[in-house]
Amino acid sequence: MAAQHSQGIQTLLEAEKEAAKIVQQARQYRVQKLKDARTEASKEIDEYKKVKEEEFKAVESSHAGITSSAQSAVDKETEVKLQQITDSYNQNKDKVVKKLLDRVVLVKPELHRNLTKVES
């Protein structure tokens, strides 16, 4: 009976070892599948990124002419306005200086309009 009992325990230990091997193989299989999935996802991301970059470059190149023409139009308009401001400055600077000097030099002393005469 002891031999039979010992053989039953031995069979259980072998079954336990076999189960541990199966569990270890399942873990390895799961880890490998995760690695494969990450690699595949990385490839898909890279392909998608490449496609979107090409689309962006195509849109950018198609709008490059529009942007440069708009920039040149804005530059021309700015030049015209700056020239107008410069011309106006050159025409009116003497008048402005004369008005400022007249205000500073020619002072007419008079009472303020809010000042009331105090009766004594």
From TrEMBL:
One of its GO terms (cellular component) is vacuolar proton-transporting V-type ATPase, V1 domain. It holds the Pfam family V-ATPase_G. Residues 12-54 form a coiled coil. It comes from the Eukaryota. GO terms for molecular function: ATP hydrolysis activity; proton-transporting ATPase activity, rotational mechanism. Keywords: Coiled coil, Hydrogen ion transport, Ion transport, Transport. Gene3D superfamilies: 1.20.5.2950. InterPro entries: ATP_synth_B-like_membr_sf, V-ATPase_G. Subunit of the V1 complex of vacuolar(H+)-ATPase (V-ATPase), a multisubunit enzyme composed of a peripheral complex (V1) that hydrolyzes ATP and a membrane integral complex (V0) that translocates protons. V-ATPase is responsible for acidifying and maintaining the pH of intracellular compartments and in some cell types, is targeted to the plasma membrane, where it is responsible for acidifying the extracellular environment. PANTHER family: V-TYPE PROTON ATPASE SUBUNIT G (PTHR12713:SF11), VACUOLAR ATP SYNTHASE SUBUNIT G (PTHR12713). V-ATPase is a heteromultimeric enzyme made up of two complexes: the ATP-hydrolytic V1 complex and the proton translocation V0 complex. Belongs to the V-ATPase G subunit family. This is V-type proton ATPase subunit G. It comes from Pleurotus ostreatus.
